[in-house]
């Protein structure tokens, strides 16, 4: 099974980097059963998996996109240090996305067949 690691550094809104990263992750999981996709959120991207986001009608919602990602078998981890710096508690994260650390991030990177950054 091929492992793909996607690293997101930008906030969920303001640019479309997180949006496009999650679109790619979901498409990979949809079209390729032989692929395992992991997403690591760093810097302002740790706000992507916060649950209960409210966006204007007709505007994409990163939390909803990540719920689909998790349902399809995707794995997500958030940088704990980055969460602490922004006052984000693990209890505010979507179910299926966990607080992580540099040890796990390093292992994911080492074990990935492909690494993509946004």
Protein described:
- By secondary structure, the protein is α/β, with parallel strands linked by helices.
- The chain has a single domain (2-117), classed as Hypothetical Protein Ychn, Chain: A (3-Layer(aba) Sandwich), CATH 3.40.1260.
- The chain has 4 helices and 5 strands.
- Strands 4-3-2-1-5 form a 5-stranded parallel β-sheet, with helices on both faces.
- Strand 3, helix 3 (80-85) and strand 4 (97-100) form a beta-alpha-beta unit.
- The longest helix is centred in the first third of the chain and has 15 residues, at 17-31.
- It is globular and about 35 Å long.
- The chain starts with a strand and ends with a strand.
- The model has no long low-confidence stretch (mean pLDDT 97).
Structure keywords:
118 residues, alpha/beta, Hypothetical Protein Ychn, Chain: A, 5-stranded parallel beta sheet, 4 helices, 5 strands
SSE blueprint:
Blueprint: E1 2-8, H1 17-31, E2 35-41, H2 62-71, E3 75-79, H3 80-85, E4 97-100, H4 102-111, E5 114-117
Parallel strand pairs: 1-2, 1-5, 2-3, 3-4
Helix pairs in contact: 1-2
Spatial arrangement of strands, main beta sheet: 4-3-2-1-5
Structural category: alpha/beta
Helix content: 25-40%
Order of helices and strands: EHEHEHEHE
Mean pLDDT: 97
What is the domain total for the residues?
A: 1
CATH architecture: 3-Layer(aba) Sandwich
* Strand percentage: 15-25%
CATH topology: Hypothetical Protein Ychn, Chain: A
CATH superfamily placement: DsrEFH-like
């Amino acid at each position: 099974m091929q492992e793909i690691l996607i690293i997101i550094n930008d906030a969920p809104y303001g640019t479309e980097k997180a949006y496009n990263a999650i679109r790619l992750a979901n498409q990979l999981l949809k079209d390729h059963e032989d692929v395992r996709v992991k997403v690591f959120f760093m810097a302002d991207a740790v706000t992507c998996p916060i649950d209960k986001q409210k966006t204007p009608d007709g505007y994409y919602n990163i939390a909803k996109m990540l719920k689909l990602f998790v349902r399809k078998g995707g794995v997500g981890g958030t940088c704990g240090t980055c969460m602490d710096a922004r006052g984000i508690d693990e209890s505010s994260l979507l179910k299926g996305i966990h607080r992580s650390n540099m040890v796990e991030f390093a292992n994911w990177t080492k074990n990935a067949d492909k690494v993509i950054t946004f």
